[in-house]
Amino acid sequence: MSIDRWPLWVVRLVRYEFWPAEVFYFPFLFYYIYLSIKVWDLGFMFRLNPFMAIGGAIGTGKMANLQRLSREYLPITLLVGDNASKADLLGRVRASGLWYPIMLKPDVGERGRGVQRVDSDEELYEAYKRLTGAVVIQEYVDTRNELGVLCYREPTTGRIRILSVVSKVFLSVTGNGKDDLRTLMGRNLRSRMRYQELLARLGPGAMRVPAMGETVYLEPVGNHCRGTEFCNSNELINKGLEMVFDRICASIPKFDYGRFDIKYATLENLYKGKGIKILELNGVNSEAGHIYGRGYGIHRAYRDVKRQFDTMFAIYRAKYMAQDQGPSLREVLRAIVAHRRLANAE
Q: 163, 152 in Cβ contact below 8 A?
């Protein structure tokens, strides 16, 4: 029987990509403590990326990170506070040159929470009112070519190296000319996991019968929690791609470690550093998304996660161990508590 037909509780049990983060990363709590004891610093990883709050682990604004990058790599993006009137909101959108569709996301948030595409003034304002805190409004980059590129800066040479490349397959179903979207979604593992939410979003459109071979995209957000399939694309890593990200990171010399979520036009232009649009830059909490690729296996995944921790540890020892700076453990714990409160409120 195809895994698409398995009971969801079985899938969540046997496929580690669907485990809660607290479960998947639990073994590394002890490894992190071991590394911390070696340098007598429980907050060592949070000292990386000093331009981000606690290394960009949590609570860092998306807009602040993007503003450090060259404009040639950025889609049109603006930050709006949490109390703008409808007239002010729409006025700023018009003045920026944005037009629909538009992506809307909380400035502080993760795992796709609150991110959505809007297609009209009314949708924009209603979505904006539902979000808490400052909001990032961003140009919709109309391509399905999206990558997460996890990089670090070698502390000795200053050159950028790439640890992971994950490509993203957006949640979709393919029509057969007979069944409606409700039926097709019920046969797809990832749409089954969000079935009621997708039905509510589609409304009467869920009754539509797609034509034979027609691909219907159900989710515009390239996030695993939103049904996107992550694929191991480490074969794309080469010196040429590292040189591209070396140029991208030239404007942020204090960058040590993080993941760029990008869209690109073609692979040929990607290797030339052209047609790249950076949607987000994340810090030390960044995952190597390729480990969730089909058939990768938990042993290889854990090997690669260990490599991530070892990389951050090596950067810390080379650059920050002798410095009495960076966030204190108390500051880190306060940020974690505040972050959990915000997540629970959402």
A: yes
> Number of C-alpha atoms within 13 angstroms, CB side, residue 227?
20
Asked whether this chain's domains 1-74+143-170+219-319 and 76-140 adopt the same fold, the reply is no
147 phi/psi in degrees, rounded to 5: -130, 150
Assigned fold of 76-140: Dna Ligase; domain 1 (3.30.1490)
Q: Is the pLDDT of residue 3 over 80?
A: no
Could you read off the pLDDT of 108-163 as tens digits, one per residue? 877 667 788 999 999 999 999 888 888 999 999 988 899 999 999 999 999 999 99
Answer with the residue of higher pLDDT: 242 or 9. 242
pLDDT value, residue 291: 97
DSSP letter at 271 equals: H
Angle, alpha carbons 340-260-308 (nearest 5°): 70
Mean pLDDT of 84-97: 92
> Do residues 163 and 290 touch, judged by C-beta distance below 8 A?
no
Domain ranges in the chain are 1-74+143-170+219-319, 76-140, 172-218
Cα 83 to chain center, whole Å?
A: 26
- CATH 3.30.470.20 applies to domain 1-74+143-170+219-319: yes
